Amino acid sequence: MHTRYAAIVPYATLDGSEIRELMHPDRHGVRQQSLAEALVAPGTATRLHRHRASEELYHVTAGRGRMTLGEESFEVAEGDTVLIPPGTPHRIENVGNTPLHILCACSPAYRHEDTELLEISEPGQSTNAPALL
Predict the structure, then answer these.
(1) DSSP string, 55-103
(2) Residue 108, preceding bond cis, omega within 30 degrees?
(3) Domains in the chain, start-ordered, CATH in brackets?
(4) Which three-class secondary structure state does DSSP give residue 6?
């Protein structure tokens, strides 16, 4: 199986980042994991969220950010990798002047239904991710 970056249409995901699904079971031959590129614009952050079942890895390929992982908060930059265990609240803020690029690997594969938003951006908004689809 092979994908070509230029052919993958990005979309806005539930946490507020722009995502390109590089490999996902719903579209490709992979079965147990997913790989995506997330883009976070300068001066913005993803919503605090967690995944009930998925273990996630973030690998920063460009830019600088501030990662919130549970009770911890720390700077990340190009070349850094972060382990996000299942059930751990997390978010990332772009603290630089250029887009923050992150490779996101999930196992089991990313599913909207596995995502619980822990903060809302509008009054009355649900934190139940499938309700936002």
Answers:
(1) EEEEEEEESEEEEEETTEEEEEETT-EEEE-TT--EEEEE-SSS-EEEE
(2) yes
(3) 5-116 (2.60.120.10)
(4) helix
Rounded CA gap, 55 and 57, in Å?
Answer: 7
Q: What is the pLDDT of residues 81-109, one digit of tens each?
A: 999 999 999 999 999 999 999 999 999 99
The predicted structure's pLDDT at residue 98: 97
> How much is the average pLDDT of 5-21?
91
| Among 112, 60, 58, 118, CA closest to 85 | 58
Q: In whole angstroms, what is the distance from residue 118 CA to residue 34 CA?
A: 23
Q: How far apart are CA 46 and CA 104, in angstroms?
A: 13
Residue 131 · residue 125 · CB < 8 Å: no
Q: Record the tokens describing residue 104, joined without a space.
A: 């996101």
**Pair of tokens at residue 51:** 């995944």
Could you report the per-residue pLDDT of 62-77, keeping only the tens digit for each?
999 999 999 999 999 9
How, if at all, do strands 34-40 and 81-84 pair?
Answer: unpaired
Distance CA 32, CA 80 (A): 24
